[in-house]
Give the backbone structure.
Amino acid sequence: RDNNDKELKIGSLPLQLQEYAIIEDLLFVMMGIEGKYIETNLSEDFTEDEQQLDGVTYSVDGSLDSSLKDLTERILPLATYYTSINAFVEMHSKFEYGFVNHALCAAMRELLKEYLILITQLEHQFCSSPTFTLQKFWFYVHPTLHTMSNLHSLIMDIRNVTRNAMEEDTEMLIDGFHRSNNIPQQVKGGGLLSILIDRMTNMSGDLATKKLYMYLLSKSSQPYVTMLHSWIHNGEIHDPYEEFMVQERKGVRKEDLKEDFNDAYWEMRYTIKEDVVPPFLIPFRNKILLAGKYLNVIRECGIAIQVPQQQSMDDDGKDNVDKTDINVSNDILAAMDGGRFVDSIENAYKCANRTLLDLLLKDQQLIARLRSIKRYFFLDQSDFFTHFLDLASVELKKPSSQVSLTKLQSLLDLVLRNPSSVAYTDPFKEDVKVEMKIGRIGDESENEGSEEGSISGERFGYAVGVVWNVGGSKQPLTGIDALTLDYTVTFPLSLVISRKALTKYQLLFRHLLHLKYVEQLLCNTWIEHSKSFYWRRGSGHPTIEAWKSRVFALRQRMLVFVQQFAYYITNEVLEPQWRNLEANLAKVSTVDQVLQYHSDFLDTCLKECMLTNAKLLRTYSKLASACVLFSNNTEKFMKSLTILESQVESVSDPIQMDSQDRTLQLFEKFEDYFLYHIKLLIECLNFYSATETVQFLCLVV
């Protein structure tokens, strides 16, 4: 074409030549090449890439015959759609857009190939057939116009989602995850499949459009399904572009379970990106997550992973999933390989769950382990512990900072290996360790916040503080005040018996140990009263006898209170709850049920032992402190009694109790303080039995 031709207006040509010229131009423009009489409309407000993606628009020479111009303008949107689709394919084929985008672009490229073949056939008709007209041109391209329009509309949807996501600038990943590029999650992987499915659902009334989107969904979902199968069958995430619905936090390791109070491994190592889960996987998202998590636990135990045998399921038919019960469109299932992924997910989940459940309950002997922990932490058949306290009594009277843990551990090992001890036959006795807890657990529980589930972090932290005497008395803790047990747990049992669970066991142990310690002090007081000459014999003075009776009565009330409280904890709470746990574990069908039952067991024990209610625990603490102080003042009461008795023997006049007024006042304070707080505790228990748990009524009685 020379310059003279360019200056020639198409309207100056005969009508037939106008038609041929505009057809020739259309063949070029429809492949993205600017024509002679059809020009590109470019805007200075947008970059060339943006205009290409949105679709380049064209204008026709105004001198063209009106009928030909009308037909041409009907055909020209094809050229706009082609430039938009071609630019989208070029851009989204870059590696950072991920496998799903690559698969979608490949499917679009196939459609563009068919489109270019159509252009080639039209050019052949134009060159070889003298009867080829613009009307025939429109007839041949009209069906393609519908397809290209739908593709362009899809691209505009994706563009809009991208713009919105980048404007909001929301961070999709939690701390600890690294986003390798700035492509929004909503237009990658599951997000892109969601857009496709939404459009397919909205356009389901148009069969041709629905068929097109089913084709695109079928092709673009293949990489995603491959990632899904890798996860549910091997527990591996091959997701370099962060497209998959499950994300891995590699910074969380299984070794942290021994120290991590918040159980982050099971909860945080693998999580679901809820907002980018494809709609067809929403009903199965929990099973998908758990199947892969179970397989990862199995692999980290060094056990080879076996892919579930599909043929056995197909033969039986009874394990196949009834897809009519699943809230997934039949069109989606048809596009997704006939919905065979549903059976694949179900089979993988059952296989992984069954394998890990057998590993925990049979190979790792979970129930036997829990029974062993119960023996030590709940002082069940605790003859060994009484012997241990007797042997370690001297060491435990020292300040906690001066106690030798090595010596205590050797004494405990000596007691556990004693053939006469019940624990001698326990195969896991080597895992029991002695510890001194002074405040570290209390600090952890405060940081733990409200992640305790049914137990708030504030109340949990208060329980730790009271049971370990943290922040209460300013006097240095003795060994018996800080003594607790620990238990060595290996992976995968640490999933169930985690650091958080062990801390709860330690709280219950400290609660019981403190009760036993107070009971021992009161029993020693009783022994002192029984051995003392002045306490045993009658003085003959009614005032002294009345005072002695009050001392005996208070001591007995305190002892009964402590013994009844210990009975309530062991026989009314721990033992029934343990039986329920054993019954539940005997019929579990999933690993998550094991975790839930064990967590519920500990939470219920803590709650019914009053370790989660600050007011009840504070009242109990005051009662226990009164008992300890009363026992510690036995010698002072003894001296006062001795002085009073000597007065009786030396003079015949009535004795003056005023000489021992301070001691008597101290006793009366103990008596009033104890009786007041017993009444207060009963009132609180009656109130909280209606608002928290009816189990408190057993203690009231």
Residues 264 and 674 are 44 Å apart (CA to CA). Confidence is low (pLDDT under 50) at residues 170-180, 310-326, 439-466.
